[in-house]
Design brief:
about 400 residues; mainly beta; 18-stranded antiparallel barrel; globular
Protein backbone atom coordinates (compact mmCIF):
# COMPACT_ATOMS: atom_id res chain seq x y z
CA UNK A 1 0.00 0.00 0.00
CA UNK A 2 2.82 2.39 0.88
CA UNK A 3 4.60 1.68 -2.43
CA UNK A 4 1.34 2.32 -4.29
CA UNK A 5 0.94 5.73 -2.61
CA UNK A 6 4.55 6.61 -3.37
CA UNK A 7 4.08 5.76 -7.06
CA UNK A 8 0.95 7.96 -7.19
CA UNK A 9 2.95 10.86 -5.70
CA UNK A 10 5.61 10.45 -8.41
CA UNK A 11 2.94 10.43 -11.11
CA UNK A 12 1.42 13.65 -9.73
CA UNK A 13 4.89 15.23 -9.63
CA UNK A 14 5.55 14.40 -13.28
CA UNK A 15 2.25 15.98 -14.39
CA UNK A 16 2.53 19.07 -12.17
CA UNK A 17 4.09 22.38 -13.34
CA UNK A 18 7.91 22.64 -13.07
CA UNK A 19 9.01 23.36 -9.53
CA UNK A 20 5.61 22.52 -8.06
CA UNK A 21 6.25 18.97 -9.15
CA UNK A 22 9.29 18.85 -6.88
CA UNK A 23 7.16 19.92 -3.92
CA UNK A 24 4.58 17.22 -4.70
CA UNK A 25 7.34 14.63 -5.00
CA UNK A 26 8.78 15.69 -1.67
CA UNK A 27 5.35 15.31 -0.07
CA UNK A 28 5.17 11.85 -1.57
CA UNK A 29 8.21 10.76 0.41
CA UNK A 30 5.89 10.59 3.41
CA UNK A 31 4.70 7.30 1.96
CA UNK A 32 8.21 5.85 2.05
CA UNK A 33 9.25 4.29 5.38
CA UNK A 34 12.93 5.02 4.78
CA UNK A 35 12.15 8.77 4.71
CA UNK A 36 10.84 8.61 8.27
CA UNK A 37 13.61 6.61 9.92
CA UNK A 38 16.76 8.11 11.44
CA UNK A 39 19.86 7.19 9.46
CA UNK A 40 22.26 8.27 12.21
CA UNK A 41 22.27 9.89 15.64
CA UNK A 42 25.13 12.14 14.51
CA UNK A 43 24.38 12.99 10.87
CA UNK A 44 20.92 14.08 9.71
CA UNK A 45 20.60 14.30 5.89
CA UNK A 46 17.87 16.48 4.44
CA UNK A 47 16.45 17.59 1.11
CA UNK A 48 14.45 20.71 0.24
CA UNK A 49 12.86 22.40 -2.73
CA UNK A 50 11.03 25.62 -3.49
CA UNK A 51 9.20 27.31 -6.35
CA UNK A 52 9.09 31.13 -6.33
CA UNK A 53 7.56 33.99 -8.31
CA UNK A 54 8.87 37.59 -8.15
CA UNK A 55 7.29 40.40 -10.16
CA UNK A 56 10.46 42.60 -10.08
CA UNK A 57 13.35 40.20 -9.80
CA UNK A 58 16.16 42.73 -10.33
CA UNK A 59 14.60 45.43 -8.12
CA UNK A 60 14.51 47.94 -10.99
CA UNK A 61 13.30 51.50 -10.32
CA UNK A 62 9.73 52.26 -11.30
CA UNK A 63 10.74 54.43 -14.28
CA UNK A 64 13.26 51.94 -15.74
CA UNK A 65 12.17 49.31 -18.28
CA UNK A 66 13.14 45.69 -17.79
CA UNK A 67 16.49 44.56 -19.19
CA UNK A 68 14.87 42.00 -21.42
CA UNK A 69 11.18 42.83 -21.52
CA UNK A 70 9.11 41.78 -18.49
CA UNK A 71 10.56 42.23 -15.00
CA UNK A 72 9.01 39.13 -13.46
CA UNK A 73 10.38 35.62 -13.29
CA UNK A 74 9.95 32.29 -11.56
CA UNK A 75 12.74 30.24 -10.01
CA UNK A 76 13.21 26.72 -8.73
CA UNK A 77 15.53 25.61 -5.95
CA UNK A 78 16.72 22.07 -5.25
CA UNK A 79 18.77 21.58 -2.11
CA UNK A 80 20.45 18.67 -0.34
CA UNK A 81 22.70 18.51 2.67
CA UNK A 82 23.10 17.28 6.21
CA UNK A 83 23.20 18.50 9.79
CA UNK A 84 25.59 17.00 12.30
CA UNK A 85 25.90 17.00 16.08
CA UNK A 86 28.74 15.10 17.72
CA UNK A 87 29.68 15.21 21.43
CA UNK A 88 33.42 14.74 21.98
CA UNK A 89 33.80 14.34 25.71
CA UNK A 90 32.52 17.62 27.13
CA UNK A 91 32.97 19.38 23.80
CA UNK A 92 30.16 19.49 21.21
CA UNK A 93 30.76 19.74 17.47
CA UNK A 94 27.77 20.92 15.41
CA UNK A 95 27.24 22.22 11.92
CA UNK A 96 25.74 21.74 8.51
CA UNK A 97 26.63 21.41 4.86
CA UNK A 98 24.21 22.05 2.01
CA UNK A 99 24.36 22.38 -1.74
CA UNK A 100 21.76 24.23 -3.80
CA UNK A 101 20.87 24.45 -7.47
CA UNK A 102 18.81 27.48 -8.46
CA UNK A 103 17.27 27.81 -11.93
CA UNK A 104 15.36 30.78 -13.38
CA UNK A 105 12.73 30.46 -16.08
CA UNK A 106 13.29 33.70 -18.06
CA UNK A 107 16.60 35.10 -16.79
CA UNK A 108 18.49 31.82 -16.98
CA UNK A 109 21.82 33.67 -17.07
CA UNK A 110 21.40 33.91 -13.29
CA UNK A 111 21.30 30.12 -12.78
CA UNK A 112 23.84 29.11 -10.16
CA UNK A 113 24.99 26.43 -7.74
CA UNK A 114 25.04 27.58 -4.13
CA UNK A 115 27.11 26.25 -1.24
CA UNK A 116 26.70 26.72 2.50
CA UNK A 117 28.97 25.22 5.16
CA UNK A 118 29.10 25.81 8.90
CA UNK A 119 31.01 24.15 11.77
CA UNK A 120 30.99 25.17 15.44
CA UNK A 121 32.88 23.68 18.37
CA UNK A 122 31.44 24.41 21.81
CA UNK A 123 34.42 23.97 24.12
CA UNK A 124 34.71 23.62 27.89
CA UNK A 125 37.81 23.74 30.05
CA UNK A 126 37.29 22.93 33.70
CA UNK A 127 34.15 24.25 35.34
CA UNK A 128 34.59 27.95 34.64
CA UNK A 129 35.96 28.36 31.10
CA UNK A 130 33.87 27.87 27.98
CA UNK A 131 33.36 29.29 24.52
CA UNK A 132 32.97 28.62 20.81
CA UNK A 133 35.22 28.35 17.77
CA UNK A 134 34.03 27.92 14.23
CA UNK A 135 33.87 28.92 10.60
CA UNK A 136 31.26 29.35 7.88
CA UNK A 137 31.22 29.68 4.09
CA UNK A 138 28.33 30.66 1.83
CA UNK A 139 28.09 31.26 -1.92
CA UNK A 140 24.87 32.81 -3.21
CA UNK A 141 23.58 35.19 -5.87
CA UNK A 142 24.21 38.80 -4.85
CA UNK A 143 20.94 40.55 -3.88
CA UNK A 144 19.68 42.96 -6.54
CA UNK A 145 18.51 45.56 -4.00
CA UNK A 146 21.81 47.52 -4.15
CA UNK A 147 23.36 46.35 -7.42
CA UNK A 148 21.17 46.05 -10.52
CA UNK A 149 22.72 44.06 -13.36
CA UNK A 150 21.58 41.52 -15.95
CA UNK A 151 24.85 39.59 -15.50
CA UNK A 152 25.21 36.90 -12.86
CA UNK A 153 27.14 38.07 -9.81
CA UNK A 154 27.90 35.53 -7.09
CA UNK A 155 28.86 36.65 -3.61
CA UNK A 156 31.04 34.57 -1.32
CA UNK A 157 30.87 35.12 2.43
CA UNK A 158 33.45 33.70 4.81
CA UNK A 159 33.52 33.97 8.59
CA UNK A 160 35.89 32.61 11.24
CA UNK A 161 35.56 33.22 14.96
CA UNK A 162 36.71 32.16 18.40
CA UNK A 163 35.40 33.38 21.74
CA UNK A 164 35.60 32.45 25.39
CA UNK A 165 34.14 33.32 28.78
CA UNK A 166 35.57 32.90 32.28
CA UNK A 167 33.04 32.73 35.09
CA UNK A 168 35.38 33.71 37.91
CA UNK A 169 32.50 34.19 40.37
CA UNK A 170 28.96 32.71 40.48
CA UNK A 171 27.59 36.15 39.53
CA UNK A 172 30.39 37.52 37.33
CA UNK A 173 32.06 36.59 34.08
CA UNK A 174 34.52 38.17 31.67
CA UNK A 175 34.43 37.30 27.98
CA UNK A 176 36.29 38.10 24.79
CA UNK A 177 36.32 37.09 21.16
CA UNK A 178 37.74 37.74 17.71
CA UNK A 179 35.97 37.45 14.35
CA UNK A 180 36.96 37.85 10.73
CA UNK A 181 34.39 38.31 7.95
CA UNK A 182 35.10 38.53 4.23
CA UNK A 183 32.81 39.30 1.28
CA UNK A 184 34.00 38.81 -2.30
CA UNK A 185 32.23 39.13 -5.67
CA UNK A 186 32.99 37.24 -8.87
CA UNK A 187 31.75 40.03 -11.18
CA UNK A 188 34.72 42.31 -12.06
CA UNK A 189 32.49 45.41 -11.95
CA UNK A 190 31.79 44.82 -8.27
CA UNK A 191 35.18 43.49 -7.16
CA UNK A 192 35.69 47.10 -6.07
CA UNK A 193 33.47 46.26 -3.08
CA UNK A 194 35.37 43.18 -1.89
CA UNK A 195 35.53 43.67 1.85
CA UNK A 196 37.24 42.27 4.96
CA UNK A 197 36.38 43.13 8.57
CA UNK A 198 38.22 42.08 11.73
CA UNK A 199 36.43 42.47 15.06
CA UNK A 200 37.75 42.17 18.61
CA UNK A 201 35.47 42.24 21.64
CA UNK A 202 35.83 42.37 25.42
CA UNK A 203 32.99 42.28 27.92
CA UNK A 204 32.18 42.05 31.63
CA UNK A 205 28.77 40.78 32.78
CA UNK A 206 26.88 40.53 36.05
CA UNK A 207 24.64 37.45 36.04
CA UNK A 208 21.59 37.74 38.29
CA UNK A 209 20.00 34.63 39.89
CA UNK A 210 16.77 35.44 37.98
CA UNK A 211 18.47 34.83 34.64
CA UNK A 212 18.84 38.52 33.80
CA UNK A 213 22.20 40.02 32.79
CA UNK A 214 23.81 43.44 32.78
CA UNK A 215 27.26 44.23 31.47
CA UNK A 216 29.65 46.45 29.53
CA UNK A 217 31.00 45.60 26.08
CA UNK A 218 33.94 47.14 24.22
CA UNK A 219 34.38 46.38 20.53
CA UNK A 220 36.80 47.41 17.80
CA UNK A 221 36.22 46.92 14.06
CA UNK A 222 38.84 47.21 11.33
CA UNK A 223 37.40 47.09 7.81
CA UNK A 224 39.34 47.20 4.55
CA UNK A 225 38.68 47.12 0.80
CA UNK A 226 41.74 45.37 -0.69
CA UNK A 227 40.95 46.30 -4.31
CA UNK A 228 40.95 50.07 -3.69
CA UNK A 229 44.50 51.12 -4.38
CA UNK A 230 46.27 54.27 -5.55
CA UNK A 231 44.01 57.11 -6.70
CA UNK A 232 40.88 55.04 -6.08
CA UNK A 233 41.64 54.84 -2.36
CA UNK A 234 42.21 58.60 -2.20
CA UNK A 235 38.72 59.23 -3.65
CA UNK A 236 36.67 56.41 -2.21
CA UNK A 237 38.66 55.44 0.88
CA UNK A 238 40.16 52.02 1.46
CA UNK A 239 38.70 51.11 4.83
CA UNK A 240 37.42 52.21 8.21
CA UNK A 241 37.86 51.75 11.93
CA UNK A 242 35.03 51.69 14.43
CA UNK A 243 35.18 51.78 18.23
CA UNK A 244 32.19 50.93 20.43
CA UNK A 245 31.42 51.15 24.14
CA UNK A 246 27.99 49.71 24.88
CA UNK A 247 25.80 48.50 27.69
CA UNK A 248 24.78 44.86 27.28
CA UNK A 249 21.50 44.09 29.06
CA UNK A 250 19.14 41.13 29.12
CA UNK A 251 16.15 41.55 31.44
CA UNK A 252 13.91 38.61 32.30
CA UNK A 253 10.96 40.87 33.07
CA UNK A 254 8.51 37.99 33.52
CA UNK A 255 7.74 34.56 32.17
CA UNK A 256 6.12 36.07 29.09
CA UNK A 257 8.30 39.17 28.53
CA UNK A 258 12.05 39.54 27.99
CA UNK A 259 13.95 42.68 26.97
CA UNK A 260 17.41 42.82 25.37
CA UNK A 261 19.43 45.99 24.80
CA UNK A 262 22.88 46.57 23.32
CA UNK A 263 23.69 50.24 22.93
CA UNK A 264 25.97 53.12 23.74
CA UNK A 265 28.55 55.28 21.99
CA UNK A 266 30.21 54.54 18.63
CA UNK A 267 32.90 56.32 16.62
CA UNK A 268 33.21 55.45 12.91
CA UNK A 269 36.38 56.69 11.16
CA UNK A 270 37.46 56.46 7.53
CA UNK A 271 41.11 55.43 7.28
CA UNK A 272 41.92 58.05 4.63
CA UNK A 273 39.00 60.49 4.33
CA UNK A 274 38.70 62.10 7.74
CA UNK A 275 35.95 64.42 6.52
CA UNK A 276 33.60 61.47 6.52
CA UNK A 277 34.17 60.47 10.15
CA UNK A 278 31.09 60.24 12.35
CA UNK A 279 30.21 59.37 15.92
CA UNK A 280 27.19 59.20 18.16
CA UNK A 281 24.78 56.91 19.90
CA UNK A 282 24.08 53.48 18.46
CA UNK A 283 21.93 50.71 19.81
CA UNK A 284 19.43 47.93 19.31
CA UNK A 285 16.45 47.17 21.55
CA UNK A 286 14.60 43.85 21.29
CA UNK A 287 11.41 42.86 23.10
CA UNK A 288 10.16 39.27 23.23
CA UNK A 289 6.53 38.88 24.32
CA UNK A 290 4.46 35.70 24.54
CA UNK A 291 1.10 36.71 26.02
CA UNK A 292 -0.53 33.46 24.96
CA UNK A 293 0.95 30.02 24.88
CA UNK A 294 0.59 29.72 21.10
CA UNK A 295 1.36 33.29 20.01
CA UNK A 296 4.65 35.16 20.41
CA UNK A 297 5.85 38.54 19.21
CA UNK A 298 9.33 39.95 18.60
CA UNK A 299 9.80 43.70 18.25
CA UNK A 300 13.05 45.52 17.46
CA UNK A 301 14.24 49.09 16.97
CA UNK A 302 17.80 50.06 16.09
CA UNK A 303 20.19 52.85 15.13
CA UNK A 304 23.51 51.53 13.83
CA UNK A 305 26.36 52.33 11.45
CA UNK A 306 26.66 49.95 8.50
CA UNK A 307 28.71 49.28 5.38
CA UNK A 308 27.30 49.66 1.87
CA UNK A 309 28.55 47.69 -1.16
CA UNK A 310 28.67 50.51 -3.70
CA UNK A 311 31.46 52.43 -5.41
CA UNK A 312 29.95 55.84 -4.57
CA UNK A 313 28.79 55.06 -1.04
CA UNK A 314 30.63 52.95 1.52
CA UNK A 315 28.78 53.55 4.78
CA UNK A 316 25.42 54.59 6.17
CA UNK A 317 23.61 55.30 9.41
CA UNK A 318 20.75 52.81 9.58
CA UNK A 319 17.62 53.34 11.66
CA UNK A 320 14.78 50.88 11.61
CA UNK A 321 12.08 48.89 13.31
CA UNK A 322 10.56 45.46 12.85
CA UNK A 323 7.70 43.46 14.29
CA UNK A 324 7.33 39.73 13.87
CA UNK A 325 4.81 37.23 15.17
CA UNK A 326 4.50 33.44 15.20
CA UNK A 327 1.20 31.69 15.82
CA UNK A 328 1.32 27.96 16.53
CA UNK A 329 -2.16 27.13 15.31
CA UNK A 330 -1.80 23.43 16.08
CA UNK A 331 0.90 20.83 16.52
CA UNK A 332 1.22 20.69 12.73
CA UNK A 333 0.40 24.20 11.52
CA UNK A 334 2.29 27.46 12.16
CA UNK A 335 1.68 30.96 10.77
CA UNK A 336 4.23 33.78 10.66
CA UNK A 337 4.03 37.48 9.84
CA UNK A 338 6.65 40.23 9.73
CA UNK A 339 6.79 43.98 9.08
CA UNK A 340 10.10 45.81 8.69
CA UNK A 341 11.11 49.39 7.85
CA UNK A 342 14.71 50.60 7.44
CA UNK A 343 16.09 54.04 6.58
CA UNK A 344 19.71 54.50 5.50
CA UNK A 345 21.43 57.91 5.61
CA UNK A 346 24.37 57.61 3.22
CA UNK A 347 27.88 58.95 3.50
CA UNK A 348 28.94 59.77 -0.08
CA UNK A 349 32.45 59.86 -1.51
CA UNK A 350 34.39 63.09 -1.23
CA UNK A 351 32.97 65.84 -3.46
CA UNK A 352 29.77 63.95 -4.39
CA UNK A 353 26.44 65.56 -3.50
CA UNK A 354 23.61 63.04 -3.50
CA UNK A 355 20.26 64.19 -4.91
CA UNK A 356 17.31 64.61 -2.61
CA UNK A 357 18.03 64.03 1.06
CA UNK A 358 20.72 61.39 0.46
CA UNK A 359 18.82 58.53 2.04
CA UNK A 360 16.60 55.60 1.18
CA UNK A 361 13.74 53.89 3.00
CA UNK A 362 12.76 50.26 2.49
CA UNK A 363 9.54 48.72 3.80
CA UNK A 364 8.81 45.01 3.66
CA UNK A 365 5.98 42.79 4.80
CA UNK A 366 5.51 39.03 4.61
CA UNK A 367 3.08 36.29 5.59
CA UNK A 368 3.91 32.60 5.80
CA UNK A 369 2.19 29.33 6.62
CA UNK A 370 3.96 26.06 7.49
CA UNK A 371 2.38 22.61 7.65
CA UNK A 372 4.25 19.67 9.20
CA UNK A 373 2.39 16.44 8.36
CA UNK A 374 5.25 14.57 10.06
CA UNK A 375 7.93 15.83 12.50
CA UNK A 376 10.54 15.32 9.79
CA UNK A 377 8.58 16.93 6.93
CA UNK A 378 7.55 20.55 6.39
CA UNK A 379 5.56 22.20 3.62
CA UNK A 380 5.13 25.95 3.41
CA UNK A 381 3.95 28.98 1.48
CA UNK A 382 4.98 32.63 1.78
CA UNK A 383 3.92 35.94 0.22
CA UNK A 384 5.85 39.22 0.47
CA UNK A 385 5.69 42.85 -0.58
CA UNK A 386 8.66 45.25 -0.66
CA UNK A 387 8.89 48.95 -1.47
CA UNK A 388 11.79 51.40 -1.54
CA UNK A 389 12.12 55.13 -2.02
CA UNK A 390 15.73 56.09 -2.58
CA UNK A 391 18.60 57.53 -4.60
CA UNK A 392 18.92 56.10 -8.12
CA UNK A 393 22.51 57.32 -8.66
CA UNK A 394 23.75 54.71 -6.17
CA UNK A 395 21.50 51.86 -7.39
CA UNK A 396 19.02 52.60 -4.61
CA UNK A 397 16.17 54.04 -6.63
CA UNK A 398 12.43 53.73 -6.09
CA UNK A 399 11.03 50.27 -6.71
CA UNK A 400 8.22 47.95 -5.74
CA UNK A 401 8.24 44.16 -5.68
CA UNK A 402 5.97 41.38 -4.56
CA UNK A 403 6.02 37.63 -4.85
CA UNK A 404 5.04 34.22 -3.57
CA UNK A 405 6.91 31.00 -2.88
CA UNK A 406 6.09 27.37 -2.08
CA UNK A 407 8.60 25.15 -0.31
CA UNK A 408 9.04 21.74 1.20
CA UNK A 409 11.73 19.88 3.13
CA UNK A 410 12.29 16.42 4.58
CA UNK A 411 14.89 15.19 7.06
CA UNK A 412 16.02 11.57 6.92
Amino acid sequence: MLNFLHKKAIARAVSAPPGLGAVVLLFGTLASPCALADISDTIKPFAATSYSYDDNLMRLPDVVAGFDGPRSDTSRLLQAGFLFNRPIGRQILTGQAKWSKVSFNRFNQFDYDGKDFLADLEWHLGNHLEGHAGASYAQTLTPFSDFQSNVRNLRTERREYVDGAWRFHPSWRVRSGITRERYSYDLPAQAFSNWTEDATELGLDYLAPSGSRIGLQLRHLDGSYPNRLGEASAVYGNGYRQDEAKANIYWELSGITQIEFLGGWVRHRNKMLTGRDSSGSNGRLSVYWQPLGKVRFTGMVWREFGSVDNSLVTSSLNTGASLGSVWTISSKVRAEAQLRRVRRDFSAVSGLVLPGDGRDTTSTGSLGLTYAPHPKVQLGARVFHERRTGVSIIDSGNYRAKGVSFNGSVQF
